[in-house]
Write a structure and sequence with these properties.
By secondary structure, the chain is α/β, with parallel strands linked by helices. It is built from ten helices and twelve strands.
Length: about 325
């Protein structure tokens, strides 16, 4: 993969892309295929990433798909090394990896991962069976078995520390979101601490099969968590789940799609253009993509922008400082 980015354009009189673009890029340095690092099945990353990869592949005529991974921490490492071209990440793990504090590669600054476009906010929410009697975080009994998602995921990286901050004593369990949902139904665990874009497929499936409570943060808990971690207050709309009778107070962290910084500029430009100019299609893939819009580019203050992505944003009136472009 060349370190030099291709700035060459060839004007064509006929469209070369299904999207109807008049200018077709020189594809001589484009990869023959691509893979997007997502997370476990039953979570939003997998649904969003799989649908997005198929959308891009269909429109660019390049074979592509999604790969199940451990989530943002692993995606940062795989994109940095070039094992994956693209990865979905949350800004907390991204900052730690960029600073050389990734638990997977301690001391290695992952500086070959570039931002491409904003996705959505990941709310941190807690789900229990209604017959557990748990209606608040303070109700969680000492020693409760809590599922924190796949090892190394955003939830697994931050939710245990949040629980520690809130004085909850627990037994830590890991697994895919769909597996943890099944364990909750079977009484093998007591709580699932979800961190995923909403609606979370595993929660939607749970509430069809069982009566559940979605536990919110009270004002004091909200303050304690936002003071200690890179998260912001977030309200889960009542319409998100059948189990909610009102909006639910939570916290959230932004997600961005990332690319290996050495991918060709024209390739990443076209992918960014397709994604940012077709939000209706993205929302049809997953409702969380309602916030996958250009205006939310300001929520990346961590990673350098890929030159191809930066070119699309600047061409469309969104200012990116030159020192934030790789």
């Amino acid at each position: 993969m060349s370190n030099r980015l291709n700035h060459t354009f060839i004007a064509l009189t006929a469209t070369a892309l299904m999207t109807g673009s008049v200018l077709a890029q020189d594809r001589s340095d484009w990869p023959e295929n691509f893979t997007v690092g997502t997370a476990s099945q039953g979570g939003t990353y997998f649904a969003y990433g799989s649908g997005w990869a198929n959308f891009i592949a269909e429109n660019l005529g390049v074979s592509g798909g999604a790969e199940i991974t451990g989530g943002p921490v692993q995606n940062m490492a795989l994109v940095h090394t070039g094992d994956l071209g693209f990865g979905l990440v949350t800004m907390g793990p991204a900052r730690e990896a960029a600073d050389g504090n990734s638990p997977l590669m301690p001391g290695m600054k992952m500086d070959n991962v570039c931002a491409m476009f904003p996705m959505y906010q990941t709310p941190f929410s807690i789900t229990v069976l209604a017959d557990s009697g748990i209606t608040s975080i303070s109700d969680i009994p000492d020693g409760a078995r809590i599922g924190f998602g796949p090892a190394g995921s955003t939830s697994d990286s931050y939710f245990p520390r949040m629980m520690d901050t809130l004085g909850v004593e627990y037994e830590r369990r890991n697994g895919s979101w769909s597996d943890l949902g099944g364990q909750l139904q079977d009484g093998l665990i007591d709580v699932v601490a979800f961190a995923a874009g909403i609606p979370i497929p595993a929660v939607s499936q749970l509430e069809v099969q069982s009566s559940i409570n979605i536990i919110e943060f009270n004002d004091q808990e909200l303050q304690a968590v936002t003071d200690a971690f890179p998260v912001s207050p977030f309200s889960i709309p009542e319409s998100t789940y059948q189990s909610l009778s009102d909006d639910s107070q939570a916290v959230s962290m932004w997600n961005f799609a990332t690319a290996n910084c050495e991918l060709p500029e024209s390739f990443v430009y076209e992918i960014t253009r397709l994604t940012m100019e077709n939000n209706d299609k993205m929302v049809s893939i997953h409702k969380a993509a309602r916030t996958s819009v250009p205006e939310n580019y300001v929520n990346n203050t961590v990673l350098p922008w890929h030159p191809g992505a930066a070119r699309w944003f600047t061409e469309n009136g969104y200012a990116i400082e030159p020192d934030m472009i790789k």
